[in-house]
Amino acid sequence: MKHLILLAALSPALAFAAQPIDFHYTNTQVLDAPADAGDATGKAWFTRCAEGGEFAMLAPGYAPDPRMTREEREAAEKDFDRAKFEAIAQQAFDRVQQELPQDKLSLCVDFTRPDDAFARDKMRGVMALTAGSGRIIVKLHPGSDWAKLLPYVLAHELHHSYWAKHHFDPNKPFTLGEYLVFEGRADNFAKHAFGEHPAPWIDALSADQYRSTLKTFAPLYGDSSPQVLMGAMFGNPAAGIPQWAGYTVGYRLVAEKIAHDKLTDWPAISALPADNFLPPQSP
């Protein structure tokens, strides 16, 4: 019943009929492949799901997990409600298209291992990556209630997809300031689209931690080193940066700008330079 309620909440999106999503089920691809075709399957998956995307270099982390056994994949497939998944995903795509129109969406779907407690408990059953404009990869924990978070996660990733098509510049360094705003805009759009924010990463800091983290980040906004970016966004305990600190900071900075300036036009919000959302720096 709760999933019927969720679909009903998404029903206004039906007024805007987007293109049908091009679904690709990685689990089926792996199960249908010969047992010794691991490398070939991985290459075919990359070609199908990521090749040519602006962020394709990040996709290998979402490739079929070779540690997942055939028995685990068969069990996940047996319990998976593909019709429900496709209905929720399509209606989420239709909703996003009302404000951020974009081209055909390729959505590659796979499962995490059943013993992946991080995916199940921390990520609440849904992990996703935008490989580029129109290319999204989703991994579901087979034992989770993934339907609750799925619309929000897809809206988040579809904002990335829109931004990649219209504003990504491969010749421009991707700095910490850019990364904070990149994620903050996506989370604010997802909340705007679906009226809630069930994701844990946007509320990962106390008030004191938020103030402290802002001070830590301030001199690093222009840094584009992978160590700084990953530590800031996902946490660096040795440096006193909590898990998901960057996601929370980015979400709050973008939310404050939207509220202060009463911004409502999402293509315009998406086009604003990242500096517009960052606190002014002391001389």
Question: How is this structure best described in words?
Answer:
The protein has 283 residues and is α/β, with parallel strands linked by helices. It folds into two domains: 11-167, no CATH class; 176-277, no CATH class. The chain is built from twelve helices and four strands, in the order αβααααβαββαααααα. A four-stranded mixed sheet has the order 1-2-4-3. It is globular, with a radius of gyration of 19 Å.
What is the radius of gyration computed over CA atoms, rounded to a whole number of angstroms? 19 Å
Largest sheet composition? 4 strands, mixed
**Overall spatial form:** globular
Strand content: 5-15%
Provide the structure class. Answer: alpha/beta
Termini separation: 57 Å
Mean pLDDT: 92
Count of individual helical segments: 12
Oligomer: single chain
Helix content: 40-55%
| Number of self-contained structural domains | 2
Order of SSEs: HEHHHHEHEEHHHHHH
Number of beta strands: 4
Poorly predicted residue ranges: 1-15
Strand order within the widest sheet? 1-2-4-3
Secondary structure blueprint with pairings:
Layout: H1 2-10, E1 22-25, H2 26-32, H3 38-49, H4 70-79, H5 82-97, E2 106-111, H6 117-122, E3 126-132, E4 135-140, H7 150-167, H8 176-194, H9 207-217, H10 226-234, H11 245-261, H12 266-271
Parallel strand pairs: 1-2, 2-4
Antiparallel strand pairs: 3-4
